[in-house]
Write a structure and sequence with these properties.
- Keywords: Chromatin regulator, Chromosome, DNA damage, DNA repair, Nucleus.
- One of its GO terms (biological process) is chromatin organization.
- The chain is mainly alpha-helical.
- It folds into five domains: 133 residues, no CATH class; 134 residues, no CATH class; 194 residues, no CATH class; 185 residues, no CATH class; 227 residues, P-loop containing nucleotide triphosphate hydrolases (Rossmann fold), CATH 3.40.50.300.
- α5 runs parallel beside α9 and α11 packs parallel to α13.
- It is built from 55 helices and eleven strands.
Length: 1210
Amino acid sequence: MEKLFFLVRQQLNKLENTTITSTGWSLGTGSSASFMTSRHYIRTFLEYVKVYVCRYVNEMNAEQFIPQLYCHLHVLLLHLGRLTELPSSVLNQCSARQGNTSTNTSYHIFHCHLDVHWGVLEILHLITTKYPNAGISSSGQRWCQGPGVEDYSVDPSDPFQQCLQLLLWDLVVLAMKKHGKLSMKEYLSVSPFHCTCIRELWVMLRELTDYRQEHMGKNSFWITLDEILQQVLHIQQQPGTCSSEVEMDTDKFWLPPIFQCSNTTDFCWWLLHNMAPLYAYTSEGEHVSLTNPLQNNYMFLVQSLLKPLTSGEQQVDEAHLRCYMQTSLSLCKLWGPNIDVLIHLWDYFYKKLNHHFQIQGLGVEGLAKINKSAVSWLEKCKNLTKPDSRVDHMNSFQLFLKHLSSSLGEQGKNIIWKQLKGRFYSKFHPRRMQELTEIGLHNFTELFITLALIGDLEDVAGKMADFYAMLQMDNVHHGHRAVVWRGMFVLMLTYEEKGVDISFLAEKMAQEFNALCWEFSNDTLESSRRFQLWSFISMYLDCVQDVFEASDQLKLSEYKLLGRGLGQILSAVRENELRIVLNFLQLVLARHRIIYKRVSQQLSDQHQVTQQFREVADALWVTAYQFVQTHSCTLTPPPQLADVAASFTMLTLNLPPGPSTGIKEDFLSSFQYFGCNAAVSASVSCRYLNHMLPNQLVIERLSSDLKNYQPLVVQAWFKCALYLFKDNDQMQELSRLILKLPEVGELFEHVEMEASDSYSTVVVQFVVALGQSYHKTEGLMNKIKFREHATEYFGDITRHIGIILKNAGPPEALKAVYVIGGYMVKHCAQFLYVKSKPDCLLPSLLDSLVLPHVLFSASKTLNPSILQAIKDHLHLWRKRIQFIMRMRVHVTSIRITSWTADIEVTMRLWMTRFTTTFYLVNMCFVFPFMTLFIRNENLNEAANRGAERTCNEHVYPSGLQKDRRCKTDADADNADMFSRSDVLITGPPRSGTTIAGKIASYSENTKYLHEPMNPIERLVNCGNITAKPKVYKNADVNLVVDIKGWQRFYSEMFPRCRNGTDNRLILKDPIALKFSHSLQKRFSLLVVVKIRHPAALIASDCARRSDWRARYCHTKSIMRYLAQRKEQFQIIVILYKLYGNQTKFWYFTKHEDFCDNPLWEARRMLEFLRMRFTHSILHKVENITSIENPSKIKRYHDIHINSKAVRDTS
């Protein structure tokens, strides 16, 4: 035996010698095969010893063999040394991914120590199990010495127990070394196991000790580890503390070993946290899911770690305390709840309620937070009760609450709660409640909310309300009151989730709220106090809103929260505060409507449904409806007021008024008041109607009970169009809804109108549609019926016009007034005037808009904004002046006292001289116009401008177009250099270039040049220029020209053709299309490009060539002709992409548009060319495009043709 152990020690020496150099231990590498061979020899020998003891040792030879074996095992351990004596280089390299195939010598040395220690321990266990008394008395030697053997229950005559203590101490010290390198962030994520083999060794030690405890009555694993940790806590031993007076035997191990630990309590928590999960591993090392609590060590946890904490003997910062609480929480999940732990923790945190529990290193997130809303606070407390919630950002107090909720789970809820609730309730009394700071009160509330969630809800809520009553709210700081209010509302939210009536809590809160509102409504209140009160009021409204949103059926006395104080503050709040209150009312009403709709679908008894929701509806109506009605008539009501008004109206639709209810208005009266009342603000009516009209139930109710609701809605629309002059989303939406009304939709069915996104355009379209529908109506009785119904759409529009004119603005409102009024007179004058009704609408419009009374007062001056509006829109009135004169609207009877006597005599002469209808119409148009401008401008200039506006009216196309007017003389004088640029008019042949050139040549100071590049045309009036560069003609297209020669030609031609004058040259030439780009760049020309459909071009050629059909009308010729025109249109497309109509040099126009509206298109072209569109040009254009002209030309380049017929044939 001695030789065999000698060989084992030799293998150990061989393994260690591979890593020792002259300088000590090395981190060298070698062959993994040789390392494994040595380790295999050692393990095989230890296994052989176990087999030998089992098979060959008996009662006869045990007394002789076992003492020798003890001695050899002791020598082997002494030769091997302790795990803690290994150098740090070996410990740092003790783990490797390759495992046993690693070539790292440190790895194999460390694991060889583990193999030997465990093998020796197994042999000792086998001997003590099979022969418990053999060799003990005869051996008479100790393996260990020191206070760990003498002061604790370590039997010095038991080699197994001494070897177990030796191995456990070494493993604990190794874990201690690793703990010393940890940061607080790594506290719970790093284990004390240097490698998985050490964790497996701990598991095997646990299995071995628990087996011995079960079968041999020895100490269990937790008791054995507890003895070691007790020494760690109480023996603060540092290196070198071993006294020199103590004689140490070198043949024995010293227990406890020398160790260094800065915080032994922290280490014990950490080690306990990592040792407890080892019970989840089987003896084979497999991890199993937990179904029952594991074997616990609560005794050590409570006695050694928690008692010093609660007694104040140990001061712990928040970071360490969080780690301890997380460890305690994890142990509770593994071991099950323990009431002693909860009691000790509660004793500690009760004393710390006023602490902030700030988490170091987390910045703002680490601060204790006062929750701003009841919902967020409840969610936070509910998160504490969830088993799988994250604990990363929880402070120590919140971790305690989570531990508490985990312990009071369903398993031990009744038993533990009955034992604990008395300890919680007895800690609070009036003096203690008044000692709580705001943070302390917040922690107190969070504690009781958590208890309410996991314990008896009503019992905890009642106690919590009683404790709040001890604070005497009149004397507490406003921060304390805020915490109390939020806490009460959190309880209400909890009641809502549990389906418990909140009457008890709601009455308390409503009483305090009403008192604050009464104080808030005091006019003499200081600003600082007012600010504090408003913060409580807004918080109350937010919390009540949360309660209503959390409710499913509004049957738990929620209406009691709507106290009378809400009505008091409505008249005392400021504008920004009013918006908050109205938002609250809107959300509560909307919630009431949603729940009513859902519940009414679920319950068949509608009477029960009505009674269930009547209390909330009555409380809202009595509180706020009267204020909403009154405030809707103010000048600047907030938008939310319309939302609330619509919600109240919908409330009456669901819950009609009754004699014993608080609702006093029915649906129709509410709708007519907010939607159609002229006194209500336009912004309120517009937003209100946008809420009501899309609702199908509202439309059905109006259709059945209010037959004329559509004219009333249109009247409100006109009112909104006048006051809400700026484009906004609300008016756009209202216009869209108006067009969906049945009557309006039927009106637009017979009228062709272009779709528009501008509500002002839609209003004008509606007016035009009314006029056109009246003209299409046949029969006197039908016209009378239509007139009576159509006048209902306008209602009392003159009242709103008068208000805007009285305020003289703003300019946008004046523009809207004059545009709408002008189109009403222009298109609807025939049914707006009724001879038998002196108070009809048309005279009122004339008196208020065209001839305001201030105009004829010498002592008063017309507002400049109104004057400008009349100037800009008076042309809309002229078309119906003849009709007005025929109806004898006596504008000439008005006394004009502000004119001089000569002007007045002259006007009287004009009125007596021009007696025909035509001149009366014109004078009726000119006289008011002259009256408007006589005070500021010359009479002749005013008359000329009026004539230009008259001209402008003629050139507008049929249908709805934007009102535009010609440039005046002053505008022309301010024209830029482009008003002197030469003009090029080009396009494909037969596209209308000739007529365009002729119209341009009608302007003054112009000279017309007809197709200079045409080979068969000769130039006239161009000096002595007769020779032109050569042009090769090929069917009017694909021309090849000498472009440089033509540039020289034009450079010489332009000055000669002008002949020293400032005349502008008008070059009309289709051939120049291909070269228009270079010509424009070279000579800065203004280019007009005419476009026409290719099929129309062919038809035009057929019309001008009598023999064309015979010569050209076959497939190849037509295809070639189309191909030639295709090239020209490609050129036009390229030019249009480059320039379009967005530049000041290029203008593209379609010949078809000219045929449809020749006056309009001619005016637009001349505006582009910076030329005036005068009466003379107007008459000439009318002459050459008149419907009396022939539909076909009689000779080449004839421009007198029926443009309408040309368009129809195209």
